[in-house]
Amino acid sequence: MARVAVVTGGTRGIGEAISVALKDAGYKVAATYAGNDAAAKAFHDKTGIAVFKFDVADFKSCEKGVAEITAKLGPIEILVNNAGITRDGTIVKMTPEQWEQVIHTNLTSCFNMCRLVIESMRARGFGRIVNIGSINGQAGQYGQVNYAAAKSGIHGFTKALAQEGASKGITVNAIAPGYINTDMVRAVPQPVLEKIVAKIPVGRLGEASEIARGVLFLVADEGGFVTGSTLSINGGQHMY
Ligand code: NDP
Predict the structure, then answer these.
(1) Which family is this protein grouped under (predicted)?
(2) Does residue 83 have its Cβ closer than 6 Å to ligand 1?
(3) What is the pTM of this model?
(4) ipTM, 2 decimals?
(5) Which protein residue's CA is at the shortest distance from atom 44 of ligand 1?
(6) Would the pLDDT of 186 be above 90?
(7) Is residue 147 among the annotated active site residues?
(8) Among 41, 137, 149, which Cα is nearest to 100's?
(9) 184 lines ligand 1 (CB under 6 A)
(10) Which domains does the chain carry?
């Protein structure tokens, strides 16, 4: 029986590529999203992948979402915590709302989703969790204290949960993408983007499919000995 995989923020950008790669590899996939119904519909029409709308920053809405996915597809054995946002600004201009939105959407979401799937994974003796961090959680980034803190938190969260899951067949790993060609990065002003690309040794942005390849490696049944790791996929920009 095909394993059920959930990709949060799985309808656009990196998440879209992950959802499609998992489907192509034979998994039963649920892609979640927050509010962009048009993008989710276009994604569903193109791929046939089931979509579920709920806010990963909110525990109660995750509870409903996970119950709905489980009822429709079966118990979740693979979870990719990918949903994320940026609300950039230097700290002198950053509002408490910008701080909270980014921490809750990028980091609290990992707690919410893992908390809700972990008991079923433990009972089944199998689970694969991949959390999408960021190069900016490893190295920091000007104008992103909120985002860097959330992503850095993901790396610690991953190592702690990996220890809790290890004896139960559950692996927990992170991927730290560098700059990837998605809406999030296309929103960066062109002159800033040019400076960023100039610092990437391979000389280009990454593609979402290059992150998806890492996810496939980590979630494989054969991946049971890889846990608590962070896989950096960043064109050589930051060697950690
Ligand atoms: P996009 O902005 O292209 O897509 C974000 C996805 O997350 C969308 O599907 C969006 O749903 C969903 N989402 C956002 N907020 C919520 C929420 N509260 N609840 C549920 N879903 C939500 O992002 P990217 O593909 O660029 O980024 C994906 C991940 O990779 C993020 O965690 C990001 O931080 C990380 N990353 C990205 C890098 C890059 O260069 N792009 C570099 C390093 C890390 P909707 O469509 O409804 O808005």
Answers:
(1) Belongs to the short-chain dehydrogenases/reductases (SDR) family.
(2) yes
(3) 0.98
(4) 0.99
(5) 134
(6) no
(7) yes
(8) 149
(9) yes
(10) 4-233 (3.40.50.720)
